[in-house]
Write a structure and sequence with these properties.
Length: 545
């Protein structure tokens, strides 16, 4: 009994879990300890796994909470950034709104200020002019606004800025009326000096038919004198081309003293009044002696004439320049030839007595209390210079300073500039037609080559100043509204509606029509070039712009 108990016990404890009914009778007692140990291990593992579940769960939950906190922080940061960006955008929009509001208020105040200024000018004019001659400045502005949109946009802003500057009533700068280049005051004229022998003029004859206004004609004449000396040729007294714009039939002897011109330049070149009889019958165009502005580049060098014109002169004995506007360079050019050009301009070309007398009368009324003549008066008005001083009867006073303003805003300058001035398509067609008639070479280049656009020319400062731009410039330089201004020249492009920009802001503006009576102007009524006394006013204690 005692011996058989162990095997039964062993069979009981060592039955396989995968066999619920059979027990192995061959089981050895030696397997008993190993199986017993395995059971203990399994029990221990079960015990550890049961205690580790809460620990792992707590770790998992902690990691999940930490991850959730990180997500929350990231979301808060993103939301904060979005809010900050929104605040910045709102702040920027607020600043832009304030700046825009400020400019709107400033614009409104400028308009009100301009209206008050026009009203003041109207009141001032009504106190000093007869009612029959008054024209309301407001009516002028209305007329201007109706005329081809010339005063809109940019020009209106210019007038508003000028009006604002003049309304401040600042004092003029102390050096405004002084020579800005100090060394220029020490320069001594030397154009009357010569150090060469007279030219024989044996290579042929030079004919010149100058176009343009008096200024362009004067330049052409002096350039022709230099070319005659350069080519050792004889100059025939220049002629002036009739212009359908100026409608002036005046010739050289109607404006300048012909005999003085010939005699004064005799030590330099040979001058005759007409071609010899044997050359008068030649068909100059048929033999190739006619040279136009198309054939000569603007401001050509002396070498061009020696290479291209001298052979024609030697072959045909005569060359006819037509137009000849600015066809000789100023630099480089030999000093003696440049001195000859100045000698022609300041000494040889003297106005006829009736123009000198009228010019002296203009100077007298502009200067008022002047007790001494100007530096160029002798060359411009000749013997009539002294009469200005004598009529004052020795009562010397402070001379009245005035500004001589030549706008250079005639239709020929406007058309030649290739710029636009606010007149739209109609203005463009008018200027193109003018160029085709008076500047054929320029019209040819305009059609065949790509010339700069009007906006590009204006951005480079190559367009003549409009009256609106001139007003803004005068105000910027420091000229106050009390400045006396003499407008030289005539026939301003756009007429009185463009000149209204000047007259409305500078009431002391005059023209020769205001300074001279109808009787004094009558001899020049049909000759627009003859009364161009701007040469007599450029040196009259004024400035030329």
């Amino acid at each position: 009994m005692l011996v058989s108990d162990p095997p039964e016990t062993s069979r009981f404890f060592h039955s396989r879990p995968n066999s619920a009914t059979s027990m192995s009778p061959q089981s050895s007692p030696s397997q008993s300890p190993r199986l017993g140990s395995s059971r203990l291990i399994n029990n221990d593992l079960c015990f550890n796994s049961q205690h580790s579940k809460p620990f792992l769960l707590s770790i998992f939950l902690g990691l999940r909470d930490q991850q959730q906190r990180l997500v929350n922080r990231t979301m808060k940061r993103k939301v904060g950034r979005v809010c900050h960006q929104r605040k910045r955008v709102k702040g920027l929009l607020g600043v832009i709104g304030l700046v825009g509001f400020f400019f709107l208020i400033n614009w409104f105040m400028l308009l009100r200020l301009q209206d008050h200024r026009i009203a003041d000018l109207q009141n001032h004019s009504s106190q000093n002019s007869p009612p029959s001659l008054l024209v309301s400045n407001k009516e002028k502005w209305r007329k201007v606004s109706k005329g081809k949109r010339l005063q809109k946009g940019t020009y209106e802003r210019m007038l508003a800025l000028a009006s604002h500057a003049l309304a401040e009533n600042k004092r003029e700068p102390k050096d405004l009326w002084k020579e800005p280049f100090a060394e220029a005051s020490a320069w001594i004229p030397c154009a009357d000096q010569r150090n060469w022998d007279p030219s024989g003029g044996s290579n042929g004859y030079i004919l010149v038919t100058a176009n343009g206004g008096m200024n362009q004609q004067r330049v052409a004449v002096c350039n022709a004198v230099v070319i005659a000396r350069l080519l050792n040729s004889t100059l025939v007294v220049p002629k002036f081309m009739y212009s359908s714009v100026w409608k002036d039939v005046s010739q050289f002897s109607d404006i300048y003293q012909e005999e003085h011109f010939i005699n004064y330049l005799t030590p330099d070149i040979r001058i005759v009044k007409e071609l010899p009889e044997e050359l008068q019958s030649l068909d100059l165009e048929a033999i190739g002696s006619v040279v136009t502005d198309v054939d000569i580049q603007k401001e050509s060098k002396p070498s061009f004439y020696l290479k291209n014109i001298l052979p024609i002169l030697l072959k045909n004995r005569v060359v006819h320049f037509i137009g000849f506007g600015n066809r000789l360079a100023f630099d480089p050019i030999p000093f003696q030839l440049q001195r000859l050009r100045c000698r022609c301009n300041f000494h040889a070309l003297q106005f006829v007595p009736k123009i000198q007398q009228t010019g002296a009368l203009l100077l007298q009324r502009l200067r008022k209390c002047a007790s001494h003549p100007g530096q160029l008066d002798h060359h411009l008005v000749g013997p009539y210079t002294k009469s200005n001083v004598k009529e004052k009867g020795g009562h010397a006073g402070k001379p009245s300073r005035f500004l001589a303003l030549h706008l250079r805003f005639e239709i020929d300058m406007v058309a030649h500039s290739l710029c636009e001035y606010g007149g739209g398509e109609e203005e463009r067609k008018v200027l193109e037609a003018y160029r085709a008639i008076h500047f054929p070479s320029l019209a040819h280049l305009e059609k065949t080559k790509g010339l700069p656009s009007p906006s590009a020319l204006r951005s480079e400062g190559l367009c003549p100043l409009t009256p609106e731009e001139a007003v803004l410039m005068l105000a910027a330089l420091g000229f106050n509204r009390k400045t006396h201004i003499f407008v030289a020249g005539a026939n301003i492009y756009g007429g009185q509606r463009r000149l209204a920009a000047l007259t409305s802001l500078y009431p002391n503006l005059v023209t020769k029509e205001k300074l001279l009576s109808a009787t004094e102007l009558e001899p020049f009524s049909n000759f627009s070039s003859q009364p161009s006394i701007q040469f007599a006013t450029n040196n009259c204690r004024g400035l030329l712009l």
